[in-house]
Write a structure and sequence with these properties.
mainly beta; Lipocalin; single chain; 44% strand
Length: 141
């Protein structure tokens, strides 16, 4: 009677320990993020959802404070990020091209967790006096 029990235990162990997902191909600090919200607010408090500008873009916030911005064609643009305080987040990209230019600057942190980064910036633009603020939300894939 014990002979059928041994193969059954072997199969149970195989399912319990043999079906894990491999993470060998991705370092721990190379998390991929996407923009789930990009919103502009004007002086009348009307909101414009411009999230679609970042469709297909991926962002890697690296531990060395660099950011890799990969466009839908696979071309990467490098930048830097800094979180000098829990209330402020800075993103700098040399020679940013649209739509990446909308991410430049010093942002107020609205939400920051291991899988969400939501930022807001007040716009002080003498040319575009109707723009009031911009909000962006990154989520980790």
């Amino acid at each position: 009677m014990q002979k059928p029990l041994i193969p059954a235990l072997f199969i149970c162990l195989l399912f319990a320990f043999g079906c894990g997902k491999s993470t060998d191909d991705q370092p721990e600090n190379a998390d991929t993020w996407v923009v789930s919200l990009l919103e502009f607010e004007n002086v009348d408090k009307d909101l414009t959802d411009s999230t679609s500008l970042f469709t297909g873009y991926e962002f890697e916030f690296n531990a060395d404070n660099t950011i890799a911005i990969i466009n839908p064609n696979g071309i990467a643009q490098e930048g830097k990020w800094e979180n000098p305080s829990s209330a402020v987040y800075e993103i700098v990209v040399a020679k940013p091209v649209p739509p990446v230019v909308y991410l430049q600057g010093t942002w107020e942190v609205v939400e920051h967790s291991s899988d969400v980064l939501e930022l807001k910036v007040t716009i002080d633009d003498p040319v575009n006096v109707f723009a009031k603020s911009r909000r962006v939300k990154f989520i980790k894939l």
